[in-house]
């Protein structure tokens, strides 16, 4: 059952990544870089889910810490961008808390799997 849930999560994440890849032709650099980071982390998650060693574990350790740092910084960059566009929607502590909780819920399993794969 657990393996099935991992496959479903990896499929949803892969589908989302492909959707962003198709629609990000005219995006600015941070969004394209985030897409590249997402693709690499998805490959690591795929290796974890299928129990295949794709690259050396040292590579995945570096990817884990680098991608985690990037996603945290990028989430708050997006929050600041939304605050500039719609100040009443994402301001103050409530906006920060919402951004942190949604990031943990959506990306927590990814980083758990990537951590398990790397270590």
Q: Your description of this structure?
A:
This protein is mainly α. It contains four helices and no strands. The protein is globular, with a radius of gyration of 15 Å. The mean pLDDT is 81.
**How many helical stretches?**
4
Computed CA radius of gyration, to the nearest angstrom: 15 Å
Class from helix and strand fractions: mainly alpha
Which consecutive residue ranges, at least 5 long each, have pLDDT under 50? none
**Overall residue-averaged pLDDT value:** 81
Number of strands: 0
- Approximate strand percentage: under 5%
Distance between the termini: 23 Å
Describe the sheet with the most strands.
none
- Broad shape: globular
The string of secondary-structure elements, in order, is HHHH
Amount of helix: over 70%
Relevant terms:
transmembrane helix, membrane, single chain, transmembrane, 0% strand, mainly alpha, 4 helices, 119 residues
How is the topology of this model organized?
Layout: H1 2-23, H2 29-50, H3 57-85, H4 92-118
Helix pairs in contact: 1-2, 2-3, 2-4, 3-4
Tell me briefly what this model is:
By secondary structure, this protein is mainly α. 84% of the residues lie in helices and 0% in strands.
